[in-house]
Amino acid sequence: PILTVGSISHFPAVMADTIQSPEQLEDRLSEPTPEVVQTLRRLEGDLIVLGVAGKMGPNLARMARRAADLGGSRRRVIGVARFSSAGLEAELQRHGIETIRCDLLDEEAVLRLPDAPNVLYLAGMKFGASGQESLTWAMNTHLPAIVCRKFARSRIVAFSTGNVYGLVKAAGGGSLETDPPAPMGEYAMSCLGRERIFEHFSRTLGARVAIVRLNYACDLRYGVLVDLARKVLTGTPADLGMGWFNTLWQGDANAMTLRCFDHVASPPLVLNLTGPEVLSVRETCEKLGRLLDRKPVFVGAEAPTALLSNAGRAFVLFGQPRVGADQLLAWVAAWLLQGGPTLNKPTQFEARDGRF
After folding, report:
1. DSSP letters for 76-142
2. Is the Cα torsion angle 53, 354, 234, 291 positive or negative in sign?
3. CA-CA distance, 269 to 54, in Å (whole number)?
4. Fewest Cβ atoms nearer than 10 Å: which of 128, 132, 136, 150?
5. According to the model, what pLDDT value does residue 162 have?
């Protein structure tokens, strides 16, 4: 769906650096930092991206391809998925990424995949988990076991989620990696199960793994900021019950994810990945209202707890994100005002019962 509303002539100076097209957006999302180039230069061998067809997979694979090329590497970057979306496979191939069609729950098909010393594990199931609990558990816990047996000698960077922590006091700064998990709902429990499977095979087979607990990456086509901006534009009430959140520019999430290959370990490294700010839903909507020339509408009141992560450990390893929250907010507002497309995939970050 495309929203075309108003103009951006009234935007402040922060709006000058706007992203004008999907092609420019993909280019920015996949632009490697010098540090990513150095990481890919240090790695030996090919890189395979399992679950490349998701929201982050295409530009993450493309960043890896660009970084390898800039570093002078001839390595293959291979994207694996069912490729049910028309055109994506050809687009990846156009950018130098080899593709393999595979149902990852088919163990025999996974065993036939080419060996690769570097694995990005992006597969998983969240949306639609309610009502499909058995498939959710199969995707989030059985599939990692298949992958670990196939790629036991590889470096594996595997996505997880901050949902494994549960709700914490908003004033506390967010959950740390050392905090005990407290998952709420079958989706979050299955994600903790995914982590435990990777940990088990890392300990028993010696696989070197980094588990990335990502908490709301933001593209301009989806993410918490897009959800809130669409509510402000359409006059839909924003629920204040989940009153605080974290988010991170997806380009920064991509770069930090690839740099995790420098830190894989047995037992696994566990790393929170999100932005440095604890953002208020109310204040964010009010800022969006000023940028979009709309008055936000609210319902409910802020609960004292929220799903929040503290990514300080990642910032020690990788430095601060290149894109701050205010810049990202301005980009999202400009994108929607100029009619930029969205994926129409709400994050459902408002859910406080763990049901997605």
Report:
1. -EEEEE---STTHHHHHHHTT-EEEE--TT-HHHHHTSPP-SEEEE-----TT-TT-HHHHHIIIII
2. negative
3. 24
4. 128
5. 95
